């Protein structure tokens, strides 16, 4: 049933109809439920018949045949549709499978995922095989198609080739092109990107922008070129400008940008009271940020800020489904929809005590139900890293005249190096560290200094980065080599070493970029990393994103990339990477 073009074959549709005719029993009957009906924008009472993964009827009637049917009296229950996350980056140490399982416990049963990690690290056949197999889990998984790597890589024309992008866009599970982190190239005349946008629109798929700080004129231009939505509004005025230009506006609450409370306050100040063109997103937050909730947390914030309750739920459900043209399947409790339903204790508490995803219980009376089968990641080429090369002290020579200064977790600026970096160990009297980006295949490297990351960090090695290349940061070269060796031994991960002893480590067994641990366990490992880094002078909020975005050229001002030290504003390689 999950391997063909249509969600339900003809024979399944006939069975669904036979339930209404009394010839087949529903598999679940939810009696006398108070549920959110978005058509009437009301809380209504009704009976909900479910057959396997589909709602086959909602209304006053009861089925005449209920053999082997699970019947639940919902008189004291409040039902809302399963929540939708439209902007997931499912590889922030966790992986798509563990994110789906964890998110389901907070009522998010449909996730629209970034494909960046897949297109950058997997062969197309392996990636599409993974997409196919993920259809068998209770969570519904959709995807984006990236048009650029959001950094400067050496083989961009191969990874983001026309044939590759076309194959992704044509995939049934792909709902949109973007996010358009490479939009300046588009404005500068990149007709290939414009062609991909045109192709996406021809297929009736959306284009998501990435326009932080964009002027009204830029927003208008990008709308003319095909953009449909944007998630980068950071003030109420920016929400207003996007709505004025016809955008669907995705309100963000993430580990890097927890903007939602302020956005809602600003919108109230500006008199924005129409919510149909708004939706929620958590923008690929790190696992610790998700400890208290995911989409449910955003609904709660909106209700607390005075957003009408039904609008608060709609921004997490039907608004998203209508925007992506999937409201015939998702986003509301109505006949014909996929049976994704959250059971609440009260209307004001959006965290469900029970959850149905594709008609399967994934949470029941506050307890997780084991419904997510394990995945053999080797089948998709996601194995522990196997490095057939060694790092030596000769690779850690630092003579560049300028380095990288951190302004916050993700923004970096150039600075002139004034200290002597020729020694094997730097002083802890300042916040400058050795900083190396090295090819995961050992072919090239680039060395500089990093200011502002830590004051007394001896060594950290990470295979988690924007390009899956290896990052080394630290004061002590010997410990940096030891951290690299331990990371290599783990098959990938984040390793902190001090006096040649491992202080903290997070194994990343899936190609060195993702953990295979459940998110609850990953949260504990990530917390320990943050504590150890803060003890050594890391003063920002999110080291995971710091590691991820050192190479990300969609952010200002200077980045360390596969091509070398890169000036984002002038689109120039300042110092090329060095072949080993």
What features would you highlight for this structure?
single chain; 580 residues; 9-stranded mixed sheet; 17 helices; 29 strands
Architecture overview:
The structure is a single chain. Strand 24 (493-498) and strand 25 form a beta hairpin. With 580 residues, the protein is α/β, with parallel strands linked by helices. It is built from 17 helices and 29 strands. The longest helix has 17 residues, at 519-535. Helices cover 27% and strands 26% of the residues. The mean pLDDT is 97. Strands 1, 2, 3, 4, 5, 14, 15, 16 and 17 form a 9-stranded mixed beta sheet that branches.
In percent, how helical is the residue content? 25-40%
Low-confidence stretches: none
From the spread of the alpha carbons, the general shape counts as: globular
Largest beta-sheet characterization: 9 strands, mixed
- Average pLDDT number: 97
**Structural class designation:** alpha/beta
Question: How large is the count of helical segments?
Answer: 17
C-alpha termini separation: 51 Å
Write the layout of secondary structure elements.
Layout: H1 10-20, E1 28-37, E2 42-51, E3 54-59, E4 70-73, E5 78-81, E6 83-88, H2 96-104, E7 108-113, H3 116-121, H4 124-134, E8 140-145, H5 156-159, H6 162-170, E9 174-180, H7 183-187, H8 191-202, E10 206-209, H9 216-224, E11 229-230, H10 236-244, E12 248-252, H11 260-270, E13 278-281, H12 295-304, H13 309-314, H14 318-323, E14 341-344, E15 354-357, E16 360-364, E17 367-368, E18 402-406, E19 412-416, E20 432-438, E21 444-451, E22 459-462, E23 470-474, H15 477-490, E24 493-498, E25 501-507, H16 519-535, H17 543-549, E26 558-561, E27 564-567, E28 572-576, E29 578-579
Parallel strand pairs: 1-4, 1-5, 6-7, 7-8, 8-9, 9-10, 10-11, 11-12, 12-13, 18-21
Antiparallel strand pairs: 1-2, 2-3, 5-14, 14-15, 15-16, 16-17, 18-19, 20-21, 20-23, 21-29, 22-23, 22-24, 24-25, 26-27, 27-28
Helix pairs in contact: 6-8, 10-11
């Amino acid at each position: 049933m999950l391997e063909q073009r249509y969600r339900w074959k003809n024979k399944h549709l006939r069975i669904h109809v036979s339930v209404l005719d009394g010839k087949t029993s529903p598999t679940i009957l939810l009696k006398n439920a108070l549920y959110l009906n978005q058509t009437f924008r009301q809380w209504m009472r009704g009976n909900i018949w479910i057959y396997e993964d589909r709602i086959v009827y909602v209304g006053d009637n009861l089925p005449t045949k209920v053999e082997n049917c699970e019947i639940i009296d919902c008189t004291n229950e409040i039902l809302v549709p399963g929540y939708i996350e439209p902007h997931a980056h499912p590889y922030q140490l966790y992986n798509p499978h563990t994110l789906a399982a964890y998110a389901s416990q907070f009522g998010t049963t449909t996730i629209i995922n970034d494909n960046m990690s897949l297109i950058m690290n997997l062969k197309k056949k392996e990636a599409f095989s993974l997409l196919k197999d993920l259809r068998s889990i209770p969570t519904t998984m959709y995807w984006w198609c990236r048009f650029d790597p959001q950094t400067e890589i050496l083989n961009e024309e191969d990874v983001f080739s026309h044939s590759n992008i076309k194959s992704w866009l044509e995939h049934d599970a792909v709902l949109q092109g973007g996010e358009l982190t490479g939009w300046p190239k588009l404005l500068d005349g990149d007709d290939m990107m414009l062609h991909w946008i045109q192709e996406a629109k021809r297929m009736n798929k959306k284009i998501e922008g990435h326009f932080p700080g964009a002027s009204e004129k830029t927003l208008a231009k990008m709308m003319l070129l095909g953009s449909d939505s944007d998630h980068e509004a950071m003030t109420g005025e920016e929400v207003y400008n996007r709505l004025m230009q016809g955008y669907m506006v995705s309100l963000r609450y993430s580990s890097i940008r927890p903007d939602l409370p302020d956005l809602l306050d600003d919108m109230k100040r500006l008199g924005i009271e129409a919510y149909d063109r708004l939706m929620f997103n958590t923008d690929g937050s790190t696992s610790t940020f998700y400890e208290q909730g995911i989409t449910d947390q955003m609904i709660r914030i909106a209700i607390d800020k005075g957003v009408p309750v039904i609008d608060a739920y709609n921004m997490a459900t039907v608004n998203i489904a209508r925007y992506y043209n999937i409201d015939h399947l998702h986003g509301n409790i109505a006949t014909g929809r996929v049976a994704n339903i959250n059971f609440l204790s009260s209307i004001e508490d959006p965290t469900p005590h029970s959850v149905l995803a594709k008609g399967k219980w994934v949470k029941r009376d506050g307890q997780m139900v084991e419904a997510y089968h394990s995945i053999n990641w080797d089948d998709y080429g996601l194995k522990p890293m196997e490095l057939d090369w060694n790092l030596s002290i000769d690779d850690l020579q630092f003579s560049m005249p300028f380095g990288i200064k951190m302004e916050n977790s993700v923004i970096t600026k150039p600075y002139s190096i004034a200290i002597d970096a020729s020694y094997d160990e730097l002083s802890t009297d300042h916040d400058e560290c050795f900083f190396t980006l090295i090819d995961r295949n050992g072919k090239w490297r680039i060395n500089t200094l990093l200011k502002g990351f830590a004051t007394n960090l001896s060594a950290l090695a990470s295979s988690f980065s924007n390009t899956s290349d290896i990052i080394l940061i630290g004061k002590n070269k010997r410990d940096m080599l030891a951290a690299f060796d331990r990371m290599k031994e783990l098959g990938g991960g984040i390793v902190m070493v001090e006096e040649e002893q491992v202080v903290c480590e997070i194994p990343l067994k899936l190609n060195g970029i993702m953990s295979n641990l459940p998110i609850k366990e990953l949260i504990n490992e990530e917390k320990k990393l943050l504590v150890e880094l803060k003890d050594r002078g890391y003063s920002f909020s999110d080291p995971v994103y710091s590691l991820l975005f050192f190479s990300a050229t969609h952010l200002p001002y200077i980045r360390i990339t596969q091509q070398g030290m890169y000036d984002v504003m002038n689109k120039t390689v300042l110092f090329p990477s060095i072949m080993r």
